[in-house]
UniProtKB/TrEMBL annotation:
GO MF annotation, one: sequence-specific DNA binding
Protein name: Two-component system, NtrC family, response regulator
UniProt-listed SMART domains: AAA, REC
Classification via NCBIfam families: PEP_resp_reg
Pfam families: AAA_lid_14, HTH_8, Response_reg, Sigma54_activat
Residue ranges annotated for the Sigma-54 factor interaction domain, each copy included: 152-381
Keyword Nucleotide-binding in annotation: yes
Keyword field: Activator, ATP-binding, DNA-binding, Nucleotide-binding, Phosphoprotein, Transcription, Transcription regulation, Two-component regulatory system
Residues where 4-aspartylphosphate is found: D57
Keyword Nucleotide-binding: yes
Organism for this UniProt entry: Magnetospirillum fulvum
Amino acid sequence: MAEDSPRRPRILIVEDDPGLRTQLRWTLADYDLLLAEDRASAITLFRREEPPLVILDLGLPPDRDNASEGLATLREIRALHPITKVIVATGNQERKNALEAISIGAYDFYSKPVEPDVIKVIIERAWNSYQLEEEITHLRDGLQGGKEFVGLVTAAPEMLKVVNLAQRVARSDVGVLITGESGTGKDVLARAIHSWSARNDKPFVALNCAAIPETLLESELFGHEKGAFTGAVARVHGKIELADGGTLFLDEIGDMPLPLQAKLLRFLQDKVVERIGGRKLLSVNVRIIAATNKDLVTMMREGGFREDLYYRLNEMGLIVPPLRERPGDAVLIAIYLLKKLSAAFEAPPKGFTRDALARISSYSWPGNVRELENRIKRGLVLADQGYITPEDLDLPEQGETRDVLPTLRQVREEAERRMLSRTLALTDNNIQEASKILGVSRPTLYALMKALRIKRRA
Ligand SMILES: Nc1ncnc2c1ncn2[C@@H]1O[C@H](COP(=O)(O)OP(=O)(O)OP(=O)(O)O)[C@@H](O)[C@H]1O
């Protein structure tokens, strides 16, 4: 192990009995330990070092026979750093105190005298839990750092570029064509553009061209007068009219039939609409944002989409990358969505397990954010422990890529392993030379090689 980078957590042991202190020191010799004997010295040390784990004897002086000092220390530690994991030690007959400690936030407890195997298991569990919470806290902080754009969450440079472009284009009235796979957030982006535009106090009207039968689509867009056709029992205003002053979002524009494409183009040129069966021309001022997951260029070539309309709509093209090409976004959006969707639940899960986050990060998300949202809804319903597990999300394991979200320790070890192997190869296995290049002593280099299981190649 490298001398300056402990792989194991730092643990503060608060124990007034010197014998038990020594016993813990021996048992936990592999860890980086801090020792305190009473509440005051424990808190001073804790403030200075902020260790992630604390082993706390509840019977501290001056009130050894009761738990008051221990519980007060626990409260203080929790107030200073709420995610610290405090493991309390109690005498055999003090179950009541242990339970009280748990109720005010202790992570776990054990009865003295300590059993080495038991305490080690408790410590490893606590350490895992600490790291997970820390990771989530960091992600949340990232989220609070201005990465949410009116319902659109991202931290991926690929997506931030698109958002930046969208923010700039929002100020003008140019036609925007958003392309991207299904479920990537084209709708969210269109709404965001509207909210950044000067039209944001006017309506945002959306029409999904694929969801409406061809025969009804024209009347949806342009409206109709009473009696215009069988079943037209009253005048209906079209979506274009309804969006007057605001933004009309034409989703799945690639599914618009050719005759209607011609009519839409005419509207874009003249800015007037005529309801079906009507005689009046109504002038309307709308900004059009269109979206599609189809390849309009190929469609144009094959005669399925009008070229002149394409250029009108695509004055500014925005391409939303699929989720698998936005590193970090799946986890970030998952945490955001969990928080958002949790509001509807009485006792929602606290978060995701480390495994679940790793699986979310490594999965390829063919259905993009929509699939992510659906799986989180499933997880919210199925999670019956404090955290959502990979099983709750029904996410398949994905071979080697499963650990895309490694721990800091794994990243460090991997970097060290690579650097050591390279240096040893470079120096032809000369330990003295290699340790000089790496800036560590020879014993440290040997220790590192042993820890990382690196052998000298013959
Ligand atoms: N970056 C994001 N942050 C938060 N939520 C998102 C994000 N992107 C998408 N969503 C959510 O995911 C779901 C799907 O997004 P949306 O409907 O915008 O996708 P789309 O690309 O328009 O899909 P389609 O092509 O099928 O119409 C929505 O519920 C949306 O709120």
